[in-house]
Design a protein that fits this description.
Blueprint (H helix, E strand, L loop, with lengths): L1 H38 L3 H9 L3 H8 L5 H14 L3 H9 L3 H6 L9 H13 L3 H9 L2 H9 L4 E6 L2 E3 H15 L4 H7 L2 H5 L1
Antiparallel strand pairs: 1-2
Helix pairs in contact: 1-4, 4-7, 7-10, 9-10
Length: 196
């Protein structure tokens, strides 16, 4: 009887932990959606997110989540923050781009659209140092992989209807800002072959 009671208690504990994890995932997702909606606002509203203690650190940490829905929400928030060129520096300084670029090796295609916009926004800022940094952490490889994506965007924007188009625009931005450097770096990452 004691063994049966112990196994019943263990099963109950596992169920409670499982429910707690589900609630936790649901709460994380809901909280990230609220933060994302704030980050969609104007620069002042987005700056509130940036200035919130540990917000960017938490976003960086959540990018490593095993849950694709959490990664996707984080990428969406970061894409909204990087929409303003002057706020890209905050994302770079917080070390967010490296784990974001790492998402592409995780095989979670659900993140491709939002992560592609982050990379595009970083290149659209026109800052040569940001572009070099992105290239140094694997951004060119990530963009080349995105060129092969068949995914269409949920909403066509900035002349792009596909994830591949966003990636091409980002690579074009890199070439425009650093014309003497980026052609060689893109070629070294097999970017030319991706275009064939």
């Amino acid at each position: 009887d004691h063994a049966r009671a112990s196994s019943g208690h263990a099963a109950s504990t596992v169920r409670k932990r499982s429910r707690r994890r589900e609630v936790s995932l649901g709460l994380q997702s809901a909280a990230l959606q609220v933060i994302g909606n704030i980050a969609c606002g104007d620069d002042r509203q987005t700056q509130v997110i940036i200035d919130c203690p540990n917000a960017l650190t938490i976003l960086r940490t959540l990018l490593a989540s095993v849950e694709p829905c959490i990664q996707k929400e984080c990428c969406w928030i970061i894409s909204n923050i990087t929409e303003s060129a002057h706020q890209v520096q905050d994302i770079v300084r917080a070390g967010i781009l490296e784990p974001l670029v790492g998402i592409f090796s995780g095989g979670h295609e659900s993140c491709d659209e939002d992560a592609a916009w982050v990379l595009y926004n970083v290149t659209a800022s026109g800052d040569p140092e940001h572009i070099r940094y992105l290239a140094n952490i694997g951004g060119i490889s990530a963009l080349c992989a995105l060129i092969l994506s068949p995914a269409e965007l949920e909403v066509a924007w900035k002349g792009c209807a596909t994830v591949a188009a966003v990636a091409l625009h980002a690579l074009s931005n890199m070439l425009t800002v650093l014309p003497n450097e980026m052609p060689y770096r893109i070629a070294a990452e097999y970017g030319v072959e991706c275009l064939d």
